[in-house]
Design a protein that fits this description.
CATH class of the largest domain: Mainly Alpha
CATH topology of the largest domain: Helicase, Ruva Protein, domain 3
Oligomer: single chain
Number of domains: 3
Number of strands: 4
């Protein structure tokens, strides 16, 4: 049998081997050709093309006819620091199109948690990570700790939810 494996990670596997988190024999078996892609934040020039692709893809898939993409939408997309890289951009665009009321994408089409700073009840600024963590906790509590239901409500995959739970040290 002739098999090719394509694997992707956002971790440095050499460091993970040193920490004992990844087997070195497996690394050397799969590490034939290594392609390193810089973070989306390090290639802002690609954001427009990728975003346009996903807008077209999801518009067609969902059956929406996007007529206008406002300057405020593009400004928000370019300002955002994408910790989730292209996967996050893809999910933001899909969610925006699913929830769109009309045929014009604006800054208001983007999910609230997308914005780097938001104003809390005391009119103080909080960082996006705090807002996201609190929102996950709120939904987890509402769903009585059911992670499958929580991921569904949040519109994210179960593995993404587990990763965020680990990242934010949610118990």
């Amino acid at each position: 049998m002739d098999v090719r494996i394509i694997a992707a990670t956002n971790r440095n596997l050499t460091e993970e081997i040193g920490k004992g988190n990844f087997r070195s024999d497996l690394f050397y078996r799969i590490s034939v050709i290594k392609i390193e892609l810089p973070s989306l934040n390090n290639r802002k020039e690609d954001i427009k093309e990728i975003t346009e692709y996903y807008i077209q893809h999801f518009s067609k898939k969902i059956g929406r006819n996007i007529k206008v993409i406002s300057k405020s939408f593009w400004d928000s997309i370019y300002k955002y620091h994408f910790p989730g890289n292209i996967r996050e951009l893809r999910n933001v665009i899909e969610r925006s199109i699913i929830l769109l009321d009309g045929d014009i994408l604006t800054e208001k089409s983007l999910p609230q948690e997308f914005f780097k700073e938001s104003i809390n009840a005391n009119n103080e600024f909080t960082i996006l990570e705090d807002v996201e963590k609190n929102h996950i906790l709120k939904i987890l509590n509402k769903e009585n700790g059911n992670k499958t239901k929580t991921a569904e409500v949040l519109g994210i995959g179960l593995t993404t939810l587990y990763r965020k739970i680990q990242l934010y040290k949610i118990k």
